[in-house]
Inverse folding.
């Protein structure tokens, strides 16, 4: 497939923001592709050269792209100036190459396959001269590309294709192109988690083929999601035939086993098998069947207590010194579901049956490899006692599950409910910020939050907030903060403390990294407190009190 064909589609997609139009553009394009072409075209439309479950990632930094562009004959200053103006390296490449290439008439046609596999090769290069090799691969692609093509090649390489092809649009486009039901495409995707494969099955085998899709060992499925209940009483009613379990605050873990081979995936479908050799061994030794797909929550444990998620997360993205990590942060898994045993797929079976199977096939190693603590009761008092016991043990709350319900990958369908204590919010002062990168260069994209020391009046840092804001909110915050900038160094700015924001967060932790001695985990903007001045912001005293309560 010529890359230029894909580029035509990219251009059409960028010209509209309407979901329906995007869906039709994608559908019209993919319906005429053969299976081999679909395999490449679908990930390239998503701008995702690797599936989440593949262990590789492209990992090309802006810096290397800038360096590559200088090899095309542009000065670093030229490249950086353009980048500053547009904030988009794809556009930079297009503009610069357009200026230079007018004279060149003969060029090879680039194929989409060539680009796809070259980018995959980038990810496989490691070691000493890998940067140079990577640069040469990118250079080779750019050398034979039209200006427009260079834009999309670069955007794909730095994983910023930005065409707005979210899962919903791709699902609808596959349904439209191959005349199959949307719901069935979604069902198939939640099981396969690979739109390329789903499109091929839809094309070759139609709706019946999609319905026949089965769980596959080694390929992660989307997990079933929980709804929230206000309290235990409501959750018992919601779940109808309730079983209550501790809600462990760790890493949702999918374990796949085929004889001696074990895979570990996260809820976001990342393959973290290499990072958890201890868990792999536990699974290999203590699952008593040859083939299985199980689900559980992995915790980091120190002195028999769960460590904050932040600690465990150090293990999730660790690429080196893994054995050291295994010793530093020992783990425990609490298994709570079972989706496949030997050749029996259990998705349609009720939870009571799946839990029983789990009990049958797992050899329990207490404190290491165990089942989620569970209580079957409709009695409110007993359920509440169980909830308090969970909290006292340092767990996050409880999950209340319907024993009669099947397992629905990827859906929030009311088969399980979570109950956890409501977190308080904090009113904090913005004292600093950081200019964003890429698309966000013109915005302040990360905000330093501080609380007030009532005695000294000093503002003490307690965290940085960079997520949970919409584009509009980033813009608004930038506009509000710009006039308050005191001074800037590199891309860090100091802000005159004037603005108070209400911030939600997942957890309050002790931390030596901030002057307050505390840190917020996942701070999230709730609103700007227009009604509050700095002197009314929350105090260190209040933070200490909140910390004690958790
Ligand atoms: P939340 O992330 O707050 O929506 O809560 C759902 C998450 O709780 C799941 O994705 C799991 O990672 C986690 N969890 C902890 N314990 C359990 C349990 N016993 N059953 C199901 N999920 C659990």
């Amino acid at each position: 497939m010529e890359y230029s064909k894909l580029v035509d589609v990219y251009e059409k997609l960028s010209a509209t923001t309407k979901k329906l139009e995007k869906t039709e553009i994608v559908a019209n394009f993919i319906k005429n592709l053969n299976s081999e072409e679909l395999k490449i075209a679908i990930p390239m439309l998503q701008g995702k050269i690797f599936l989440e479950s593949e262990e590789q990632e492209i990992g090309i930094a802006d810096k290397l792209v800038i360096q590559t562009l200088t090899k095309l004959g542009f000065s670093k200053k030229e490249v950086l100036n353009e980048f500053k103006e547009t904030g988009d390296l794809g556009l930079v490449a297009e503009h610069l190459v357009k200026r230079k290439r007018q004279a060149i008439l003969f060029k090879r046609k680039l194929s989409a396959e060539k680009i796809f596999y070259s980018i995959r090769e980038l990810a496989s290069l490691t070691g000493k001269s890998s940067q140079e090799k990577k640069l040469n691969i990118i250079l080779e692609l750019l050398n034979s590309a039209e200006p427009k093509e260079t834009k999309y090649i670069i955007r794909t390489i730095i994983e910023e294709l930005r065409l707005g092809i979210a899962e919903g649009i791709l699902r609808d486009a596959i349904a439209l192109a191959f005349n199959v039901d949307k719901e069935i495409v979604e069902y198939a995707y939640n099981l396969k988690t690979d739109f390329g494969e789903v499109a091929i099955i839809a094309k070759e085998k139609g709706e019946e083929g999609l319905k026949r899709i089965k769980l596959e060992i080694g390929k992660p499925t989307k997990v079933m999601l929980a709804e929230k209940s206000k309290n235990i009483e409501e959750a018992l009613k919601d779940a109808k035939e309730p079983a209550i379990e501790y809600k462990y605050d760790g890493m949702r873990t999918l374990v796949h086993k085929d004889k001696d081979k074990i895979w570990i995936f996260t809820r976001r479908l990342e393959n973290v098998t290499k990072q958890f050799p201890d868990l792999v061994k536990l699974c290999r030794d203590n699952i008593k069947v040859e083939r299985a797909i199980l689900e559980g929550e992995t915790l980091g444990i120190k002195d028999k207590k769960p460590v904050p998620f932040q600690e465990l997360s150090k293990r999730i993205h660790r690429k080196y010194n893994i054995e050291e990590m295994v010793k530093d942060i020992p783990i425990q898994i609490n298994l709570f579901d079972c989706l496949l045993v030997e050749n029996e797929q259990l998705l349609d079976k009720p939870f009571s049956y799946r839990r029983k199977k789990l009990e049958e096939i797992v050899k329990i190693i207490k404190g290491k490899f165990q089942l989620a603590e569970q209580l079957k009761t409709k009695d409110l008092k007993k359920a509440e006692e169980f909830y308090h016991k969970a909290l006292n043990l340092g767990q996050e709350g409880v999950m209340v599950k319907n024993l009669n319900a099947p397992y629905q990958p990827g859906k929030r369908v009311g088969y399980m409910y979570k109950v956890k204590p409501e977190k308080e919010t904090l009113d904090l002062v913005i004292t600093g910020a950081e200019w964003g990168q890429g698309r966000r260069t013109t915005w302040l994209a990360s905000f330093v939050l501080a609380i007030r020391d009532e005695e000294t009046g000093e503002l003490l840092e307690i965290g940085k907030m960079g997520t949970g804001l919409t584009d509009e909110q980033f813009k608004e915050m930038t506009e509000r903060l710009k006039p308050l900038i005191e001074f800037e160094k590199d891309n860090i700015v100091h802000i005159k403390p004037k603005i108070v924001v209400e911030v939600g967060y997942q957890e309050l932790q002790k931390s030596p990294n901030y002057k307050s001695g505390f840190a917020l985990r996942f701070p999230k903007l709730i609103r700007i407190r227009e009604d509050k001045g700095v002197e009314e912001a929350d105090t260190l005293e209040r933070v200490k009190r909140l910390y004690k309560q958790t």
Remarks:
- The chain has three domains: 3-157, 225-419, 426-549.
- The domain at 3-157 is CATH 1.10.3260.10 (DNA ligase i, domain 1).
- The chain has a mean pLDDT of 92.
